[in-house]
């Protein structure tokens, strides 16, 4: 827009000087007409020279009007283009970096309408949380083809890992990042530091830890290493402060060699069998305890009953039964033990 304003300004300047020359021409033509009028010649008794003087005056006035019109139009358009070249419209979620012939300065433009250098080209850089994926599948990530990261573990086994790194650009560092690494800075900062950190951190774990028990610890160490690597890189290039913040490191998949897969499956099956056996033994142990408690209760009950049944009690119960039988109208035969008390029957 500023270059159009400059072109229109040139046209306006030319129109201005042409207007000045046209004004002078009108003044000369008007002076000639006034001279003719002063000599007593009018448009009714004039000759060819008089007609030519009046014609020249009319032409000069028309040309002056056109030149003035061109000047004011071009001057207005120049002012409008200059104003628009000083205004930038920055989208939401990004910051504007002013690129003035290769110089970015230190000031960024916030989202919305902002005042800028009229000669600056505004480059929008996202401050949203972005993701960078490195995966063995061809349809994942920015790199076509296999972009997985091989990790050599402590026990010299190479694992194939897939990662997604979430990050965002620090707003105040945007001009420096653009000037140093360009708009596609993630390929020059995030990607190389992530791959380097993933390999370095994986070398202190064995393959079993990475695939099961210490996976979370490995991911946390990778996240910390990536952030430290980016901060060190910025410091080496002369910038004090953070330029990119790593929000999250996500380990999407760990693929061991084919032979290891079978070993893992076999080990997992054995662990499940051991857990099942331990569960069965625990149930059997609880059942044995339950039966022991039940038997103990029955034994205690029987002991209590036996201790409470005395000969006197049995004799008393015998007498009660005999009384009920004696009162009964039914005929019956009573077989009594030898030491039973005598029975007194009522007279018939």
List the helices and strands and how they pair.
Elements: H1 2-38, H2 48-85, E1 87-90, E2 94-99, E3 108-109, E4 112-115, E5 121-126, E6 130-134, E7 149-152, E8 158-169, H3 174-181, H4 190-202, H5 207-213, H6 215-236, E9 244-255, H7 258-308, H8 311-326
Antiparallel strand pairs: 1-4, 2-3, 2-5, 6-8, 7-8, 8-9
Helix pairs in contact: 1-2, 4-6
Explain what you see:
The protein is α+β, with helices and mostly antiparallel strands. 16% of the residues are buried. Among the domains are: 84 residues; 29 residues, no CATH class; 128 residues, Tetrahydropterin Synthase, Chain A. It contains 8 helices and 9 strands. Helix content is 55%, strand content 16%. It starts with a helix and ends in a 22-residue tail after the last helix. Strand 7 and strand 8 form a beta hairpin. Helix 1 packs antiparallel against helix 2 and helix 4 packs across helix 6. Strands 6, 7, 8 and 9 form a 4-stranded antiparallel sheet that branches. Strands 3-2-5 form a 3-stranded antiparallel sheet, covered by helices on one side. Strands 1-4 form a two-stranded antiparallel ribbon.
